[in-house]
């Protein structure tokens, strides 16, 4: 099965005169974790709500399992699990009741797996939802999602209220889904999490997808930080594709960034000048993020 | 920093937050009072008009609804006005105060806003004091407007003292129930529970005053809601009821402060108990979810409406026996005619109450339908729509529950009146027959359904305008409750569905009207449904 689970083509959404989504195009394939990142208000949640059929797109197409997200939403949701960023629960029901209800509405039932998840996440299912903290509300939604046997999982900033222990449980559970060949769309602000878990990443800015690809592919588009100590007085500013050159603490120590396509030339040239120490750091996702949003490296 | 630090700032914030709702209440209530007073001389200006209405107002059926007042000597237009309007305006004033008080305290706390405010340098009791001051100012402002409006209307028989008694008396009653709302907001652990407790107490004081008014008006002093009746503004003015209201208001506020001091923010004296670890077998979809969440409210409403019906039914024996007021009738007309007349009176009374019951029965249904939209904006529906559940399914889960609730509440209420009423009669034959009862039910159900259908239409197509449902229902209620006493023209009564059906069982049921009203209700629901399937949902 190589057909993408989710396919979005030039998706647009207007609220009155405000163009919330201008051009969203990406797809998610089976067995893949797709990271969806962007600052607040860029359109991540709007995109996800279009995918859920809660709001209707004003242009472009979006399909899940090859079916239209608006007209076939009920059929799609049979095989889909979703955890919203802000989990709102019916205040006078207990967490346990809500989990069971959500499962039943998908035609599944409370299983040993559910009990296991409740125990793992450390949730007290007898408490009324009104008394839960943000993290506990998220746990309820996560437990319901993970105990469901879906083919496509959508997580919208699922760990923003979780402590590091529960965050780790979440990440392990997502990796298990991936091994089982499920598709996962993960929208997150925690870039280290995305970096660790996601196979491919889509970056959204002001309602537009500005970059998609694997982290490795993206790194090619940006610059690598290099710190080098040379044995002679070579002037590194003469190198091609070098930016932001700064002198280091020691004599002949330099710090600069190199464009990906010039990296090999630069390294070859440096090698002729008696390299005493060399440290090269690939850009982190955070660097990439900053690069796209502030225009600086 | 004292415990009341920065109360002033919070009061300003409260008025900024509630400016539209306060403005709307004040404008509507003041205009209602002033315009009725303005028109009143035209309605009950001449002695013959006054004498005719005097008899009506003394009948137990009207006493049950408008309170017991005693007239001495020459009755003036102003006295009739006070009789008809005082209790009615007090009821609306109480509803306003309960809404504002819970909104200003417990609802803010549920949203986490109080926590945010208290984290700043404000006194621990400042948010509650600010709410109390807000209520005081709103009631005072409204009271002064009433008095000024009455003075401007200058009805025959009105006195300056009487005008101010009415204005300040209503303000004091409103304030008293506002303070009750502040207290229940401290006792309950969330806003709707606070509202529920407050309305239960309000309902009990209404029932107490109704039963005592019909039987022993002196005992009405024991119901705080009865105090407005004791003002007797234009015949024997009394300031004591205002004093009593203010004293009780201060006591309630003191208790609210005490409770506020002895509880944690976010908690109430009634603690949230843990519940089931797993869902019961029947909780499995949107419809059962609506029931699970709202069952207490639904059951409470149905029981409350039945109790009201039963309470009205208890006065059947007093109303439906004209021999009590006129013992010589039997000798003059014979027993058959007397029973016929008794039956007619009961039919008329039941027909009037049926319309009131219908208006009351609509409220829980309308709340449920509008809840579909408030649940949507609170994000509670997002979890439903992420499941294989269609818009149609969710919409009809709410709408179906609403229609069933209102229908059952109405049948229960009218049934309560008729069953209790017939049981209280010495001659059961004088009472309402089963056929008459079911015709009464059939006459009001279309009206209930049209109102609910309108709410479905608004929630489905234009949810921002949903408040119109309440205004329209209020208009319908006022036109039937006050319509005949204010001699409103038919075109005004026909603005809302409450006026479309002739009064049944007094008159025959009109099946043509029945059919097109049901048809209209169906059309409204269908359009609302189509709109709901097409529109974007609003998620916070």
From TrEMBL, chain A:
Ranges for domain ABC transporter come to 6-231
Keywords, A to Z?
ATP-binding, Nucleotide-binding, Transport
Please provide, alphabetically and separated by semicolons, the GO molecular function terms listed in this UniProt record.
Answer: ATP binding; ATP hydrolysis activity
SMART domains named in the record: AAA
A Pfam family reported for this protein in Swiss-Prot or TrEMBL: DrrA1-3_C
Could you tell me which InterPro entries the record lists for this protein? AAA+_ATPase, ABC_transporter-like_ATP-bd, ABC_transporter-like_CS, ABC_Transporter_VariousFunc, DrrA1/2-like_C, P-loop_NTPase
* CDD domains hit by this protein: ABC_DR_subfamily_A
- Keyword Zinc-finger assigned to the entry: answer is no
Protein name, per record:
ABC transporter ATP-binding protein
Phylogenetic lineage: Bacteria, Bacillati, Bacillota, Bacilli, Lactobacillales
Automatic annotation (TrEMBL), chain B:
Q: Where are the transmembrane segments?
A: 20-40, 52-73, 85-105, 125-152, 164-183, 239-259, 298-319, 345-370, 395-421, 441-462, 469-488, 508-532
- Protein name, as recorded: Permease
Q: Which organism is it from?
A: Levilactobacillus suantsaiihabitans
Keywords, comma-separated and alphabetical: Membrane, Transmembrane, Transmembrane helix
């Amino acid at each position: 099965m190589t057909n993408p689970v989710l396919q979005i083509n030039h998706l647009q959404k207007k609220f009155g005169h405000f163009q919330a989504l201008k051009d969203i195009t990406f797809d998610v394939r089976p067995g893949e974790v797709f990271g969806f990142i962007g600052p607040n208000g860029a359109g991540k949640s709007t995109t996800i709500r279009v995918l859920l059929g809660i709001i209707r797109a004003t242009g472009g197409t979006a399909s899940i399992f090859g079916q239209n997200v608006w007209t076939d939403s009920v059929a799609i949701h049979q095989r889909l699990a979703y955890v919203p960023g802000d989990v709102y629960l019916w205040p006078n029901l207990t967490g346990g009741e809500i989990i069971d209800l959500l499962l039943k509405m998908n035609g599944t039932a409370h299983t040993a797996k559910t009990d296991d998840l409740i125990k793992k996440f450390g949730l007290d299912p007898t408490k009324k939802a009104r008394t839960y903290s943000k993290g506990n509300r998220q746990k309820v939604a996560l437990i319901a999602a993970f105990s469901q046997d879906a083919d496509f999982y959508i997580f919208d900033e699922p760990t923003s209220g979780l402590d590091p222990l529960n965050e780790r449980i979440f990440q392990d559970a997502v990796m298990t889904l991936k091994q089982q060949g499920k598709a996962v769309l993960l929208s997150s602000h925690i870039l280290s999490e995305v970096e660790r878990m996601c196979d491919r990443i889509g970056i959204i800015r002001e309602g537009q997808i500005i970059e998609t690809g694997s982290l490795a592919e993206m790194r090619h588009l940006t610059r690598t930080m290099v710190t080098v100590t040379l044995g002679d007085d070579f002037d590194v500013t003469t190198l091609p594709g070098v930016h932001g050159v700064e002198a280091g603490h020691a004599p002949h120590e330099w710090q600069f960034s190199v464009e990906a396509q010039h990296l090999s030339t630069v390294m070859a040239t440096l090698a002729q000048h008696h390299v005493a120490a060399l440290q090269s750091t690939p850009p982190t996702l955070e660097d990439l993020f900053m690069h796209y949003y502030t225009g600086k490296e | 920093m004292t415990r009341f630090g920065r109360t002033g700032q919070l009061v300003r914030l409260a008025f900024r937050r509630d400016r539209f709702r306060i403005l709307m209440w004040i404008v509507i209530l003041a205009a209602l009072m002033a315009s009725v007073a303005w028109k009143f001389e035209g309605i009950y200006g001449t002695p013959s008009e006054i004498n005719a209405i005097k008899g009506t107002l003394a009948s137990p059926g009207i006493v049950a609804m408008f309170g017991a007042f005693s007239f001495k000597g020459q009755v003036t237009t102003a006295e009739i006005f006070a009789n008809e309007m005082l209790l009615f305006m007090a009821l609306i004033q109480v509803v306003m105060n309960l809404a504002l008080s819970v909104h200003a305290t417990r609802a803010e706390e549920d949203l986490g806003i109080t926590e945010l405010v208290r984290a700043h340098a404000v006194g621990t009791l400042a948010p509650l004091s600010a709410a109390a001051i807000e209520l005081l100012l709103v009631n005072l402002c409204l009271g002064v407007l009433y008095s000024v409006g009455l003075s401007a209307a200058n009805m025959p028989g009105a006195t300056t003292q009487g005008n101010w008694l009415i204005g300040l008396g209503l303000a004091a009653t409103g304030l008293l129930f506002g303070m009750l709302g502040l207290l229940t907001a401290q006792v309950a652990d969330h806003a709707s529970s606070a509202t529920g407790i407050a309305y239960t107490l309000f309902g009990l004081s209404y029932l107490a005053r109704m039963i005592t008014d019909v039987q022993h008006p002196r005992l009405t002093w024991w119901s705080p809601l009865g105090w407005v009746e004791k003002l007797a503004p234009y015949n024997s003015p009394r300031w004591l009821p205002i004093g009593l209201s203010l004293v009780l208001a201060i006591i309630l506020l003191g208790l609210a402060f005490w409770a506020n001091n002895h509880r944690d923010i976010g908690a109430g004296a009634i603690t949230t108990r843990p519940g089931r670890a797993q869902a019961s077998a029947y909780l499995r979809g949107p419809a059962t979810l609506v029931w699970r969440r709202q069952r207490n409210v639904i059951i409470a409403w149905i029981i409350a409406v039945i109790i009201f019906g039963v309470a009205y039914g208890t006065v059947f024996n007093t109303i439906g026996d004209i021999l009590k007021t006129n013992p010589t009738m039997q000798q003059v007309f014979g027993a058959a005619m007397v029973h016929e007349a008794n039956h007619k009176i009961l039919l008329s009374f039941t027909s009037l109450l049926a319309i009131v019951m219908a208006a009351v029965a609509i409220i829980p249904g309308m709340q449920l339908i509008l809840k579909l939209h408030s649940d949507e904006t609170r994000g509670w529906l997002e979890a439903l729509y992420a499941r294989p559940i269609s818009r149609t399914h969710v919409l009809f889960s709410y709408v179906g529950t609403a229609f069933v609730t209102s229908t059952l509440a109405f049948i229960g209420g009218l049934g309560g009146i008729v069953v209790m009423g017939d049981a209280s009669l010495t001659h059961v034959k004088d009472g309402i027959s089963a056929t008459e009862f079911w015709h009464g039910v059939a006459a009001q159900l279309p009206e209930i359904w049209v109102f609910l259908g309108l709410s479905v239409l608004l929630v489905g197509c234009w949810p921002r305008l949903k408040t119109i449902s309440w205004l329209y229902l209020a208009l319908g209620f006022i036109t039937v409750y006050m319509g005949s006493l204010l001699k409103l023209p038919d075109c005004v009564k026909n603005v809302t569905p409450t006026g479309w059906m002739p009064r049944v069982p007094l008159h025959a049921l009109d099946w043509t009207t029945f059919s097109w009203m049901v048809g209209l209700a169906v059309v409204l629901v269908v359009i609302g449904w189509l709109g709901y399937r097409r529109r974007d949902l609003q998620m916070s």
